[in-house]
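Hey, resending since the last one bounced:
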Amino acid sequence: MLAAHPAVDPDRIAAVGVCLGGGYAVRAAASDPRIRAAVGIAGAYNSPARFSSGDGAGYRRTLASFIERYDDELPAVAPGGGLAAMGGDEPWSYYGTERSAAPSCGSRCR
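The structure tokens again:
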């Protein structure tokens, strides 16, 4: 457990999330009293209202379509507005280039 590590002050544990992880960090901090702070960097927070046409049926249709396409492969980002999980040139300009490279990650992050 993180709080038991000798280098950790258990009263100063924080959660940090990048992109969609920002939403996960906020959720974790909201439900775990050991987490004293949360940070979202370029946070993405999925909202059911975004998928709804104002009724529960629209939300359920959207969720069903996700399940139907569960095994489809889709690139995370694509240049020139190509079909991708994060469409558009802005995500590509970061995640699709060396700007997002992490030396400790290696090829498994691409």
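Helices lie at 21-31, 48-51, 56-68, 89-95.

Sorry for the duplicate.
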